[in-house]
């Protein structure tokens, strides 16, 4: 079993005796003892304080050792906080409902209303790599930093990628998609070394990139060059109010023959994420003073769409009315980066 924190909720994550993942709130509903401090036999977790036992997949209480034969407490009606979870692409996805289990009471878990996100894959054989890092900021700042198109030449400088002197005007088409928006298929940036290398490897005219953002926190990027492709799924997960985590899973069939390909890609991603992490660490110093902030057109329009999408989603849930997308239709944005 392993402890974790998600949306301010302490979790204990593990696998049962058959290898299936489970997620419980790391709190015994009796007296609040962390269940991660107890014993686990592969099917039930035992609280280390009074020996209460819980099924790890349902959270249902199975045993209270202190009860005598003539005491009729309905043990089966007691549940530890239990969350739907699923393993996919070597990540454990945990569904936290709007009203998370209080950790004490008689409540079964809510099941997710949507499927676990999947990294797009376009062939049977591919390489895969993962990366994760904590960010010292709120999930909102993590997300708008993720979609910010203008910070690259200043934050992500490297001799093998781009310099600040390569800045130039860009124009990109965007379109609404369900619960999000898409940077429509376009030719990759001309001022980045990896894309230049890709042009040498495949027909330049066939290279296209598509980037989607989908609520609540998903960024999907796909690069296709004929039969070759690269795709990634990046998520920004809220841990607590002022800390979040970025996770990246990438798949590709480009350069599959390259020795140490996954390690090399992870090195590149790690450089990027560390640059973002350091920038947000510095930004957090300024945010401590709660300054007035601004978003400008066109470079910050994706951030504006994100906040508008959030507001529209929350209003639809509050009112019960149909979700109204804040984007009226396709539009073109331009900026320099």
Low-confidence stretches: none
Assign an overall shape: globular
Order of helices and strands: EEEEEEEEEEEHHEEHEEEEHHE
What is the CATH architecture annotation of the largest domain? Answer: Alpha-Beta Complex
CATH C-level category of the largest domain: Alpha Beta
How far is the first residue's CA from the last residue's CA?
A: 45 Å
Number of helices: 5
**What's the total number of strands?**
18
> Sheet bearing the most strands, described?
8 strands, antiparallel
Question: Compute the gyration radius: what is it?
Answer: 23 Å
Provide the structure class: alpha+beta
Number of domains: 2
Strand coverage percent: 25-35%
Q: What percentage of residues falls in helices of 4 or more residues?
A: 10-25%
Mean pLDDT: 87
Topology-level CATH name of the largest domain? Naphthalene 1,2-dioxygenase Alpha Subunit, Chain A, domain 1
What is the topology, as strand order, of the major beta sheet? 11-17-16-15-14-13-12-18
Classified in CATH, the superfamily of the largest domain is Naphthalene 1,2-dioxygenase Alpha Subunit, Chain A, domain 1
Write the layout of secondary structure elements.
Blueprint: E1 2-6, E2 9-15, E3 21-25, E4 39-40, E5 44-46, E6 53-55, E7 61-63, E8 82-83, E9 85-88, E10 91-94, E11 127-135, H1 139-147, H2 152-155, E12 169-177, E13 180-186, H3 193-201, E14 207-214, E15 218-225, E16 228-240, E17 243-252, H4 261-287, H5 301-319, E18 331-336
Antiparallel strand pairs: 1-2, 2-3, 3-8, 4-5, 5-6, 6-7, 9-10, 11-17, 12-13, 12-18, 13-14, 14-15, 15-16, 16-17
């Amino acid at each position: 079993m392993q402890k974790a924190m998600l949306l301010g909720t302490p979790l204990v994550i593990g696998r049962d005796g058959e290898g299936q993942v489970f997620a419980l709130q790391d709190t015994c509903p009796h007296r609040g003892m962390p269940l991660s401090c107890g014993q686990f036999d592969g099917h039930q977790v035992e609280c280390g304080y009074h020996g209460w036992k819980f099924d790890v997949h349902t959270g249902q209480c199975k045993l209270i050792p202190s009860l005598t034969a003539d005491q009729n407490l309905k043990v089966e009606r007691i549940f530890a906080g239990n969350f739907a979870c699923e393993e996919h692409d070597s990540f454990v996805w945990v569904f936290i409902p709007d009203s998370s289990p209080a950790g004490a009471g008689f409540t079964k878990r809510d099941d997710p209303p949507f499927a676990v996100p999947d990294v797009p894959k376009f062939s049977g054989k591919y390489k895969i790599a993962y990366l994760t890092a904590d960010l010292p900021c709120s999930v909102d700042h993590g997300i708008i930093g993720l979609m910010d198109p203008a910070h690259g030449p200043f934050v992500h400088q490297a001799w093998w990628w781009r310099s600040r002197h390569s800045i130039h005007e860009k124009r990109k088409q965007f379109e609404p998609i369900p619960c999000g928006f898409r940077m429509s298929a376009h030719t990759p940036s001309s001022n980045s070394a990896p894309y230049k290398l890709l042009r040498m490897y495949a027909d330049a005219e066939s290279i296209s990139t598509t980037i989607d953002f989908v609520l609540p926190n998903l960024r999907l990027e796909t690069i296709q060059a004929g039969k070759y492709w690269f795709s990634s799924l990046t998520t920004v997960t809220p841990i607590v109010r002022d800390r979040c985590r970025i996770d990246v899973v990438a798949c590709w069939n480009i350069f599959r023959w390259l020795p140490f390909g996954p390690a090399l890609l992870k090195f590149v991603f790690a450089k990027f994420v560390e640059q973002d992490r350091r920038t947000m660490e510095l930004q957090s110093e300024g945010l401590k003073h709660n300054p007035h902030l601004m978003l400008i057109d066109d470079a910050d329009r994706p951030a504006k769409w994100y906040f508008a999408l959030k507001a529209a989603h929350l209003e639809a849930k509050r009112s019960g009315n149909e979700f109204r997308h804040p984007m009226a239709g396709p539009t073109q944005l331009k900026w320099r980066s």
